Amino acid sequence: MTTATTTDLAIFGGPKTVTLSAPPWPCFTDAEIQFVADSMTKAAGDWRLACTAAPGGLAEDLEKKFCQVLGRKYAIATAGGGPALHIACLAAGIQLGDEVITSPYSWGQTCSCILQAGGIPIFADIDPDTLTIDPRKIEPLITPRTRAIVLVHIFGIPADLDPIMAIARKHNLIVIEDCAQAQGSLYKGKQVGSFGHFACFSIGSGKNLAAGDGGMLVVDDDRLHQMALLAGMHPARTGPQVTIPELRSKIDSLIYTYRINAFTAALALKQFERLDEMNSWRRKNAAHLRQALTGVPGIKPMPIPADRDPAWHIIPWSFVPEDFQGKVNRVQYLKALQAEGVPIGWSYVGNPINLRHIFQTKDWWSGHGYPWKANPRGDQIVYRKGDCPVAEKRCWELDLTLGGGPWMKDLRPFLEQIAEAFRKVTAAPQRLAEIKV
Ligand SMILES: Cc1ncc(COP(=O)(O)O)c(C=O)c1O
Fold first, then answer.
1. Can you tell me which atom of ligand 1 is nearest the CA of 110?
2. Is the backbone peptide bond immediately before 413 cis, with ω within 30 degrees of 0?
3. What pLDDT is stored for residue 256 in this prediction?
4. Where in the sequence is the domain holding 152, given as residue range(s)?
5. Among 146, 183, 220, 269, which is least packed, fewest CB within 10 Å?
6. Residue 58 lies in a domain
7. How far is 233 from 412, CA to CA, in rounded Å?
8. Model pLDDT, residue 137
9. Cβ of 106 below 6 Å from ligand 1
10. 327 close to 433: Cβ distance less than 8 angstroms
11. Which residue out of 86, 103, 109 has the highest number of ligand 1 atoms within 8 Å of its CB and is therefore the one to mutate?
């Protein structure tokens, strides 16, 4: 029988170390709430302001803001990051059975947009340091049917954009950046979302800019922009904005209703005023914790290259079983820390996307076997364990997540408690090994 002592681990009945918590989230300031109320008052009786179907509505100011911040020519506000990604895939000209290279390590929507557009996802493994698509793994996967690369800056960590863009130029591929988790992250000093042919953002309530639900697509090329408008925007907008003669015949209501809610756009626009400050606290909190946990057994921070500056939507770490000579496993470690009040989780991705049920059964919404059946080599495209070993090892052995989410304020006392909990737990490795899993 195990009896608790005052210094015992909380999981065995000892005192809990972390008594503070992260702030509630999302949080809207009085100024943001007032701005939305004022926008509603202004828009009452004026459908063009209240509805984002036509140009000149409230969403246009948010679109201009994204263009200005990212140095882009065009922006299209959407109902979410997922809709922005789907529009980008359609506008990229992905046809039924085309191949699109992407990462197995993400939120599923980095990939569902490809399937939704009729494309076949082809998975390139990730870089073990940045957890983003490994450029060295892309080129061998390119075939005559490859049309695009959808990459993701997962957790806010920028993918290695320069070599990826070089591969895309060489093979005439469209690059779509999934920036849903990376608003404000920098690659070589430049904001992510300013590199690919398209970049897609989310402003859902779980994101760095948290405005309920919504998204944004940015693009520079005139034709790609007009194709994207045609895929998801109302004829009241495509009518005046689609000017390329051969595209005008596509102006129609045969579209997806993928536009943003005008008042979400107003909220996001106002919240933009404090985005840099929130992101700067995300960075400071992450740096503080990475420093505080250096040398603590069982965990190590990701070795982010010096040319990337993540805005840390989520902070990933690696479990180090060797620190316990293999006698403590990841679940025991996690359970002990969680009992101390540490908001630590294991793999965000859980199972690499390529190994999920849909890819094993090839049973997507477009009908059993499609889009694979639309490609002559579709039968040979199979998704097997061992195809992406780095992503597998991350998900099944190494992944830990701690931090991000609401960490956009000064949280140093809370972080100190977290570090203290790690010290307490790792000072008793024999007790950790006793935890039942
Ligand atoms: C990486 C990634 N891509 C796409 C999305 C989809 O964004 P939304 O929920 O705004 O549609 C998310 C949302 O969590 C995401 O994390």
1. 3
2. no
3. 86
4. 30-273
5. 220
6. yes
7. 45
8. 98
9. yes
10. yes
11. 109
The reply to whether 234 falls in a domain is: yes
Bridge-based pairing state of the strands 198-202 and 190-191: unpaired
Residue 365, exposed/middle/buried by CB under 10 A (0-12, 13-18, 19+)?
Answer: exposed
The reply to whether 182 falls in a domain is: yes
**What CATH number is attached to the domain comprising 175?**
3.40.640.10
What pLDDT score does 6 carry?
Answer: 53
Where b means 16+ CB within 10 Å and e means fewer, 18-56 reads beeebeeebebeeebeebbeebeeebeeeeebbbbbbee
DSSP per-residue codes, 268-318: HHHHGGGHHHHHHHHHHHHHHHHHHTTT-TTEEE----TTEE---SEEEEE
Q: Whole-model pTM?
A: 0.97
Question: Residue 115 is encoded by which pair of tokens?
Answer: 């399937």
**Residue 397 DSSP one-character state:** I
Euclidean distance between CA atoms 428 and 289, whole angstroms: 21
135 lines ligand 1 (CB under 6 A): no
Query: Tokens 């106002």 label which residue?
Result: 270
Quick one: pLDDT at residue 141? 98
pLDDT for the residue 77: 98
Low-confidence ranges of the chain (pLDDT < 50): 1-4
Taking the CA of residue 203 as reference, the ligand 1 atom at the shortest distance is 10
- Bridge-based pairing state of the strands 198-202 and 174-178: parallel
Beta bridge partners of 198: 176, 219
Within a domain: residue 378?
no
Characterize 257-283 residue by residue with b for buried, 16 or more Cβ atoms within 10 angstroms of its Cβ, and e for exposed: ebbbbbbbbbbbbbbbeebeebbeebb
CB distance 204 to ligand 1 below 6 Å = yes
110 lines ligand 1 (CB under 6 A): yes
Total number of domains constituting the chain = 1
SS3 call for 148: strand
pLDDT value of position 5: 54
316 lines ligand 1 (CB under 6 A): no
Strand partners, 100: 121, 148
Does the CB atom of residue 375 touch ligand 1 within 6 A? no
| Residue matched to tokens 């608790």 | 4
